[in-house]
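Message: Study each token:
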Amino acid sequence: MKRTLMMVGMVVSAFASQAAMADAGMDLAKSKNCLACHAVSSKLVGPAYKDVAAKYAGQKDAEAKLVQKVLKGGSGTWGAIPMPANPQVTEAEAHTLVKWVLAQK
């Protein structure tokens, strides 16, 4: 019985952590103006976050690669419109954003 309760507690804690990350990621995306060009489920100026997650799924270097794109900008991966650099985003914030983006389904 104790073991079952402990397992239930661990599962609830994991879901709570995921929910907190989802809220933090969305809040950060809003505050850094990412949503001016991106949306979770549909293409705007840039690709939908769920499409980014699908494209980079299973790539071990995806987080590092995307953090650099957030910080420095990039072009050509999703078409002709370049993504500008984001000097208002710190490296730690970029990691939080990218982890959140890669978790989108």
Observations:
- DSSP finds four helices and no strands in the chain.
